Amino acid sequence: MNRKPTAGWQVFNGFNVIFLTAISLVMLLPFLNVLAQSFSSSEAIVKGEVLFLPVHFTTINYQYVFSDHAIWRSFGVTVYITIVGTLINLIATASLAYPVSRPEYMGRKAIVIMVLITMVFTAPLIPNFILMKNLHLTNSLWALLIPGAISAFNFFIMRSFFLQIPSEIIDSGRIDGTSEMGMIWRIVLPLSKPVMASLGIFYAVSHWNTYQSAIYYLNKPTLWPLQVKLRQLIVSDDITIDPNASQFSGLAHMDPEGIKMATIIIATLPIIIIYPFLQRHFVKGMMVGSVKS
Description:
By secondary structure, this protein is mainly α. The protein has 14 helices and no strands.
């Protein structure tokens, strides 16, 4: 029987709508301001005339960014470590989480405890740097990929998902003569699309926003990811405009804020575009571990 909502419930529901709308605007409006500045003229930005809509609309900022080889090189580095790093993360995490989720594997409890310890006690920076140096990983993109191959938090999420796979399915595969690798590839992974998509988003966003590790381990500007290049633009005003370039004539003596904002948009947009395509799996993966049989 449907009950009519009480006055208290309607007030509470209305308060929730107002509160969540306000929170959404707090998160959205700064992005709209950056987007508006990226399409505005330098004069309007310097005078503080830009709020949420472009003033003196122009695409010159994006033209500069697209013509800057250093920014594109950093963008390529970020795309590379995001794709390769996410694949390494998912393979390594699944390779560890699956065995410790099956009751027939000995020593799984000890491994879980060791992984749990790493969530409580983390290695200091200096020993980490010395380790990377002794392994000859400094000034190499592998320094951004190997140390964080397995996230303890994501490991427990994936292990929780694997625990929900019925043992009967695994046993039936073994009875049919399927090898362990074949069973993982044909049975376990197809059932694990939600958790793989969810953790893939977590890992990909982490790699896309790589900053501290690059600062610590990379001294070559040619290896800097996009976030480090963006920091260089914002903090040091390291923007050089060729006054002889006809498309940038008139920008040589202007404020570079618009170029910075265009770079921020380019650094943020790919993740925003990719997320809707994985949202369905992401929502399913968020329920991993919430229901136990």
